[in-house]
Amino acid sequence: MSASESPLARKLGSFMPLMPDELRCVAELESTRRSVAPRTEIVYEGQKDHAAWLLLDGWANSYKLVPDGGRQIIGFPIPGDFMGLRSILLRTSDHSFESLTDAVISEVSQQRITQIFEDLPRLATAIMWGTSRDEAMVVEHLVSIGRRSAIERTAHFFLELGQRLALIGRVTSNGFACPLNQYVLADALGLSAIHVNRILRQLRERGLITLKAQQVIILDLAGLEDLAGFDSGYLNHGHSGT
């Protein structure tokens, strides 16, 4: 996979231009490819001494289960995202990762991450930028669930997802593929599936967005951003100048 085709290289390259030795390391991280079916558990909550995984293709989700059997989806890793990276430093995973679609993943050991920090500090800094950006997204999701209305948080979610996919070249001129059904969206947005269906209908009737046949079509980007109060600054795209 060339640098232009590598989601991880594209993502980290938006923070700082990657040097040839750094690009070779990215290619090596992507080399232990493994295909998994939908709903494959990749990391489970409470797992100890596990590797991290790099998502190369497909979609996944991270989540926690609560005692009554409910599920709160924390986020949706897309190609170029690490899964379980923080937990290999904490030794025990505090949440789970599962594939949502057919996916391709690559195993990354704790020893390999440590070696990158020792040998390639610029690349390590870019990886830390990626994890910091993930943390910023969790903060925004917390604000959405706590303070944004149902329609605002749904609009914000799709805008953020579109920006993330654009960074790795997975968008069209007016939208993007999205395999998330209403039940998955409900667990991510803190709503019921019926409420999600109602909100999607309202967004469509306002001429802002439509979701059909696993495709999100943004009809009025400015209107959607205005509704959500969306400011993409927390996603921190653009070279740092490092």
TrEMBL record:
GO molecular function, one term: kinase activity
Name recorded for this polypeptide: cAMP-binding domain of CRP or a regulatory subunit of cAMP-dependent protein kinases
Domain HTH crp-type, chain residue ranges per copy: 148-222
Keyword Signal attached: no
Keywords: DNA-binding, Kinase, Transcription, Transcription regulation, Transferase
Lineage, opening ranks: Bacteria, Pseudomonadati, Pseudomonadota, Alphaproteobacteria, Rhodospirillales
Spans traversing the lipid bilayer: none
Keyword Ligase part of the UniProt annotation: no
Any one GO biological process: regulation of DNA-templated transcription
Any Pfam family hit: cNMP_binding
Gene3D superfamilies: Jelly Rolls, Winged helix-like DNA-binding domain superfamily/Winged helix DNA-binding domain
